[in-house]
Specification:
- The protein folds into 2 domains: 202 residues, 2-enoyl-CoA Hydratase, Chain A, domain 1, CATH 3.90.226.10; 47 residues, Orthogonal Bundle (Lyase 2-enoyl-coa Hydratase, Chain  A, domain 2), CATH 1.10.12.
- The chain is an alpha/beta fold and 266 residues long.
- A hairpin with a 2-residue loop joins strand 1 and strand 2.
- It starts with a strand and ends in a 10-residue tail after the last helix.
Length: 266
């Protein structure tokens, strides 16, 4: 275990807190590995029905640990640097793919800065709630490199090609309200309300129909790459599979009886 990630599981909600506040929670190998291990270990855990990502202290995540880049690469040749960074970035990408493929809904709770890979975590999460003091920047161009962490994939799909180009080419900062307008986050709340609003949303999802929520994630992510024929086949298969679950039986029964469904009890 590592103290680079703090983990708390209560009432169906797992909260993963990136815990390097002295570096604005810059991504480390230990942080990535701890998050990846948790996702793997709890993929089919009925006690984990929703996952929240947050940062310790005043910021969400500052992206990669740029200071460590310089230290590791100081005595490397250009070819060695290329090999090193390609391997390091592939490791970070595996975490993004896990977030996308994880059956549980994932919420990013964003306070303060989200830079580089922090923007990617926001985009790769299923929902993102930002404090009104949050700000965002890709910033890669400022260290003379191109984006990683999936932002070049998710960002154009969220904000459109021209705006994605502007964000990536200029590396400028934008605030939480602009992030919501663009679709980088779902909503903005007062800083003092962030934990409460995220907890309310997480508990709502944790009390939802787990199989259906996982199916929704799979369908929506698949739609980014599928043609319409494949997507419609997936919808039919998914609906039929949901109809075999106890939650489906409870949902339609509760609808007929005009009462609130009690999912996860069957």
């Amino acid at each position: 275990m590592t103290d680079h990630v703090l983990i708390d599981v209560a009432d169906g909600v797992a909260t993963l807190t990136m815990n390097r506040p002295d570096t604005r929670n810059a991504l480390s190998h230990e942080m990535r590995a701890a998050m990846a291990d948790f996702l793997d270990a709890h993929r089919d855990d009925p006690a984990v029905r929703c996952i929240v990502l947050k940062g310790a202290g005043e910021h969400f995540m500052a992206g990669g640990d740029v200071k460590s880049f310089a230290e590791f690469a100081r005595d490397m040749s250009p070819v060695e640097r290329r090999t090193y960074f390609e391997r390091r970035i592939h490791n970070g990408h595996r975490l993004i793919l896990q977030l996308r493929d994880q059956p549980q809904p994932i919420i990013a709770a964003i306070r303060g800065g989200a830079a580089g890979y922090g923007v990617s975590l926001s985009l790769a999460s299923d929902l993102a709630i930002a404090s009104d003091n949050a700000f965002f920047t890709l910033a890669y161009v400022n260290i003379a490199t191109s984006p990683d962490g999936s932002s070049s994939y998710f960002l154009p799909r969220a904000v459109g090609l021209k705006k994605a180009m502007e964000i990536a080419l200029l590396g400028d900062r934008f605030d939480a309200h602009e992030a919501a307008r663009l679709g980088v986050v779902n909503r903005v709340v007062p800083d003092s309300d962030l934990e409460g609003e995220v907890d309310k949303l997480a508990r709502r999802l944790a009390n939802g129909p787990a199989h259906a929520l996982a199916s929704i994630k799979r369908l929506v992510h698949g739609s980014l790459d599928n043609d319409v024929d494949r997507q419609l086949r997936m919808e039919a298969e998914s609906f039929a599979a949901c109809s075999m679950t106890a939650d489906w039986a409870e949902g339609v029964t509760a609808f007929a009886e005009k009462r609130k469904p009690r999912f996860g009890e069957g």
